[in-house]
Amino acid sequence: MPVLTEQPSMGDVLKYEVNPNYTREVITLLQGLPYPVGSVLGQITASGKYTLSPATGTDGSQLASAVLLYAVDATLADAVGIVAARGPAIVSRAGLAYEGTVNDSAKITAKLAQLAAVGIIARNGV
Predict the structure, then answer these.
(1) How far apart are CA 46 and CA 69, in angstroms?
(2) Cis preceding-peptide flag for 88 (omega within 30 of 0)
(3) CB of 126 within 8 A of CB of 74?
(4) For 23-81, what is each residue's pLDDT tens digit?
(5) Is cis: bond before 54, omega within 30 of 0?
(6) pTM
(7) Are 35 and 50 in contact (CB under 8 A)?
(8) Nearest-CA neighbor of 13 among 94, 118, 103?
(9) Domains with residue ranges and CATH for the chain
(10) What residues contact residue 21 under an 8 Å CB cut-off, 6+ apart?
């Protein structure tokens, strides 16, 4: 019998939100890559578009401010996505996806603190 593997979904990331009408936003994702569900995003100040939040930078995206709730393929063009943009909200720490430069526990802790500043709390084991 074949083994079926289910892709991660919003339920693997978002565990609680006070009200979807308040916590969620529709945003534009910068073209160039497929964004997995749970992507930790930052907003580019000049364009207002979102991209994976790097560990450092100067364009604004280095400040994590949202979590992508559905996978979006923006490989060929900018794309629309739905994010948790403010809290109160709880996300699963294990369900988050980071940009490649966020590659150690100190950098991950910094991203989680940035999300906490907008009310999005990451927890283990939820």
Answers:
(1) 24
(2) yes
(3) no
(4) 999 999 999 999 999 999 999 999 999 999 999 999 999 999 999 999 999 999 999 99
(5) no
(6) 0.94
(7) no
(8) 94
(9) 10-123 (2.40.300.10)
(10) none
Structure tokens at 85: 């943009």
Query: In the structure encoding, which two tokens stand for residue 12, read together?
Result: 């693997």
Provide the residue type at 29 as one letter.
L
Name the residue type at position 98: Y
Would you call 44 exposed, middle or buried from its count of C-beta atoms within 10 A (0-12, 13-18, 19+)? middle
Q: Which amino acid is at 69?
A: L
**Distances 125 to 6, 35, 90 between C-alpha atoms, Å:** 20, 23, 11
Element (H or E) spanning 40, and its range? strand 40-43
* Strand 72-73 relative to strand 40-43, pairing: unpaired
